[in-house]
């Protein structure tokens, strides 16, 4: 299968390396020092059970628009959610007046990416996705470290026979590439479950500049994490999604027992990059407010982090 991967950070590079190793064609879209490094030297990825050190093909977003669409079967979006609107506009321009377009798979944080994409692109070609049980980030340009199994869940936003067939094929491709993948008929529920994990640890780890293990094995801090996760489940009710206490407990145990990792927001703080506060935290606050409720854990942690990081 032929893939275009938008974003060559930790997740994008991991998926790309696995797919290339399995014999698939992959082109990366990157920017800045990462793009420069990928074009000048090999991509190096270290994982406890997998290593990759090869030259890869990479372009910037403007260069990729000159390539024929039929060269790709799928476009994987692995950028920050803060880039979704800009990418949607780029893809809309690229796809204009084209009868056949590749499927778009979002592997981003947050629960609003697919809605943003669907306002600019054919909804039947948009696949929502998420990965869990993985930590992956850039150590230095073109050098990636990763840990975990990268369990992946995919689902169509608007199911059709065509995208069902594509999803089944993609599932086989990912599984063969040692990316354990399953298909969900209710992907929005899975996206909110992932947000429960993200809101639970991302902002608090970034604020305290600690890995997940330090937070989860601290008696008092772990209770704050549970409060953050519970507020996310309350927020989900505004979208008609009911996530039980048992499910929250399972996800809390998952984080506690998983490898101690740096969540993406902590990595962003360390590298002075834009934070996904709106996409991970504000969405929880707003969906609680829509029910006449507050989200005091989320509001407190995200407000302090925003002040400390942005001084506003």
Q: What topology does this entry show?
A:
Elements: E1 2-6, H1 10-21, E2 25-29, H2 32-40, E3 43-47, E4 50-54, E5 57-59, H3 61-64, E6 74-77, H4 84-95, E7 103-106, H5 113-118, E8 126-140, E9 143-156, H6 161-176, E10 181-183, H7 187-208, H8 212-216, H9 219-237, H10 245-257, H11 264-270, H12 277-289, H13 296-310
Parallel strand pairs: 1-2, 1-6, 2-5, 3-9, 6-7, 7-8, 9-10
Antiparallel strand pairs: 3-4, 8-9
Helix pairs in contact: 7-9, 7-10, 7-11, 7-12, 7-13, 9-10, 9-12, 12-13
Biggest β-sheet: count, sense, barrel? Answer: 10 strands, mixed
Whole-number total of structural domains: 2
User: In what range is the share of β-strand residues?
Assistant: 15-25%
Please state the overall shape, judged from the principal axes of the Cα atoms.
globular
The SSE string, one letter per element, is EHEHEEEHEHEHEEHEHHHHHHH
| Unreliable segments of 5+ consecutive residues | none
In CATH, what is the class of the largest domain?
Answer: Alpha Beta
Give the tally of β-strands.
10
> Which superfamily, in CATH terms, is the homologous superfamily of the largest domain?
NAD(P)-binding Rossmann-like Domain
* CATH topology descriptor of the largest domain: Rossmann fold
Q: Report helical residue fraction.
A: 40-55%
């Amino acid at each position: 299968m032929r893939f275009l991967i938008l974003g060559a950070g930790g997740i994008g590079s991991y998926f790309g390396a696995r797919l290339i190793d399995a014999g698939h064609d992959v082109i990366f879209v990157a920017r800045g020092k990462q793009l420069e490094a990928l074009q000048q030297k090999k991509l190096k990825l270290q994982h406890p059970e997998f290593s990759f050190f090869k030259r890869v093909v990479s372009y910037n977003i403007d260069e990729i628009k000159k390539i024929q669409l039929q060269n790709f079967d799928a476009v994987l979006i692995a950028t920050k959610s803060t880039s979704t609107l800009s990418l949607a506009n780029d893809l809309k321009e690229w796809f204009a007046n084209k009868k056949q377009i590749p499927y778009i798979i979002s592997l981003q944080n947050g629960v609003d990416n697919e809605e943003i994409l669907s306002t600019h692109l054919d909804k039947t070609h948009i696949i929502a996705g998420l990965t869990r049980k993985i930590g992956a980030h850039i150590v230095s340009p073109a050098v990636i470290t990763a840990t975990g199994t990268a369990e992946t869940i995919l689902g169509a936003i608007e199911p059709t026979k065509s995208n069902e067939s594509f999803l089944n094929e993609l599932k086989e491709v990912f599984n063969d590439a040692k990316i354990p993948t399953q298909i969900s008929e209710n992907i929005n529920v899975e996206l909110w479950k992932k947000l429960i994990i993200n809101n639970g640890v991302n902002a608090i780890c970034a604020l305290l500049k600690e890995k997940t293990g330090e937070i989860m094995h601290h008696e008092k801090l772990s209770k704050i994490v549970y409060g953050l996760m519970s507020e996310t489940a309350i927020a989900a009710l505004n979208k008609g999604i009911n996530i039980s206490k048992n499910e929250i407990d399972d996800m809390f145990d998952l984080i506690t027992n998983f490898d101690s990792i740096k969540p993406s927001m902590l990595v962003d703080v360390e590298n002075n990059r834009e934070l996904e506060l709106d996409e991970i935290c504000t969405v929880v606050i707003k969906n609680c407010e829509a029910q006449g409720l507050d989200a005091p854990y989320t509001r407190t942690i995200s407000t302090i982090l925003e002040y400390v990081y942005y001084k506003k």
